[in-house]
Amino acid sequence: MRERARALLLLPAGVWYALFLVGPLVVLFIFSFGIRGPNGGYLPGFTLEQYQAIGTRITPFVNTVWYAALGTIGCLVVAYPLAYYLATRAGSKRLILLALVVVPLWTSFLIRTYAWMFILGSNGIPKIWDELGLGRLVLVNTPFAIVLGIVYNYLPLMILPLFVSLDRLDRSLLEGSRDLGAGPVATFRQITLPLSLPGIASGCLLVFIPAMGEYLIPVLLGGGKTYFLGNALADLFLQSRNWPFGSAIGSAFVGMMLIVVALYAVFTARLSRHRPDAQLL
């Protein structure tokens, strides 16, 4: 009886998941084996030519993985000290500072990106730089602007899991490490950092996956000079109307994401089996 009740409770979510996530992915996968019609679109068929042609569009894959990885590393470098401060030093200001971290998520992604276009544009930082007599500075439409846009827009997704992980640390382990003679650096390296690895892994996953599907940032801040997978898919489906080839690239992209999620699951499973809670030195 309990199992039946549990199944009934899960049924609405399962139906929603099947219709709006699994269903479109199945259609995408089927289209990837078809052929392009004379006027574009899709014609039924079964061929692997679309997957064989992916090698001719390897640049968007490389750019997407490279910039998503750089943005994820940048988020981690910025977020970890902030999350550590919020979890251990913020005190009564913690809720206010956490609210300030979350507030940008309430603003439109497009508006936030446009704001950086102004800041990095000719009337923003480059203008101040030039008036100081430091020479000409170009920031917008550069790889730097793309990475900065990823770091800014996805930073809260890195801070929150890191904060939760650091906030749940057993303070007695830190005190025990200090009592046994370990300094702050050794305590951080042997206790704090290993125990916060689940938060690091979760934050990296939450940032890396949406950054891989990014479309607006490379167009607005990169000027369209750096081609992401999102840009390639938009061109294939909307401009050249090569739906089978676009579906093949989309299917390959989904496969990459599944590999990333699988690696995350393996990593977190190993962490749970080898937690260093008792390693104080």
Biggest sheet overview: none
What is the CATH homology-level superfamily?
Answer: MetI-like
CATH topology: MetI-like fold
For the termini, the CA-CA separation is 51 Å
Can you tell me the CATH class? Mainly Alpha
Describe the structure.
This protein is an all-alpha fold and 281 residues long. The chain has one domain: MetI-like (MetI-like fold, Orthogonal Bundle), CATH 1.10.3720.10. The chain has helices at 2-31, 49-52, 58-88, 94-102, 109-120, 125-131, 143-167, 171-179, 184-195, 197-212, 216-220, 229-239, 243-273. Helix 3 packs antiparallel against helix 10 and helix 7 runs antiparallel to helix 10 (197-212). The longest helix has 31 residues, at 58-88. The radius of gyration is 23 Å and the shape is globular. The model has no long low-confidence stretch (mean pLDDT 88).
List keywords for this structure.
0% strand; MetI-like fold; single chain; 72% helix; 281 residues; mainly alpha
Any chance you could write out the topology, listing elements then pairs?
Blueprint: H1 2-31, H2 49-52, H3 58-88, H4 94-102, H5 109-120, H6 125-131, H7 143-167, H8 171-179, H9 184-195, H10 197-212, H11 216-220, H12 229-239, H13 243-273
In short:
The chain is mostly helical and 281 residues long. It contains 13 helices and no strands.
